[in-house]
Amino acid sequence: MLKLEQVLCLRYNYILLNVKILESFKLLMLGRALILIREVGIMGFLKFLKSFFQPPKDRNLIPIYLSDKKCNEKIKVLVRKTYDIHSLYEEEGEAAYRLNKVVICNKCYNKINLSIDFDRNYNIIKKTIEGGNFITEEEYNKEEIGSD
């Protein structure tokens, strides 16, 4: 049977061992961070840290930005590659996928009909719209000056 002093001594040694392992791990990570800074520079390292703490982007979504023709409401539509976009089995065109979607404006309830053709890498080849206009992400994020 172990005496209380022996148990405490074993526990103390166990804690010291864990602290040494943790310190070694910290030194290893610091060394890797210094190598990364040397390779990509301090700004690249800061970008890496920023990306490490940001939530991952969903690669399954494609954002499409629209504005309604009636009320000029800006609309962002997130299209899922696996659900909204359908494969084309025609051999005539270069399009591999097609999106046909009806978007309803939240402000005036106008219907906006979208038809977008994509290649195999989901790059837009052809797009048509009825009842609205395509806008860029910058136009969507731009604040309206003088609006209430």
> What's the gyration radius in Å?
28 Å
Instruction: Determine the fraction of residues in helical runs and give it as a percent range.
Output: 25-40%
N→C terminal distance: 80 Å
Which structural class best describes the helix and strand composition? alpha+beta
Number of helices: 2
* Poorly predicted regions: none
Q: Which band does the percent of strand residues land in?
A: 25-35%
Large-scale geometry: elongated
Strand order of the largest sheet: 3-4-5-6
The biggest sheet amounts to: 4 strands, antiparallel
The average pLDDT score comes to 81
The strand count comes to 7
Number of domains: 2
Order of helices and strands: HEEEEEEEH
Pick out its properties.
single chain; 148 residues; alpha+beta; 4-stranded antiparallel sheet; 3-stranded antiparallel sheet; 2 helices
What does this protein look like?
The protein has 148 residues and is of the alpha+beta class. The chain folds into 2 domains: 1-54; 61-141, no CATH class. The chain contains 2 helices and 7 strands. It has helices at residues 4-53, 137-141; strands at residues 61-68, 74-80, 86-87, 97-104, 111-118, 124-130, 132-134. The strands form 2 sheets. Strands 3-4-5-6 form a 4-stranded antiparallel sheet, with no helix packed on it. A hairpin with a 5-residue loop joins strand 5 (111-118) and strand 6 (124-130).
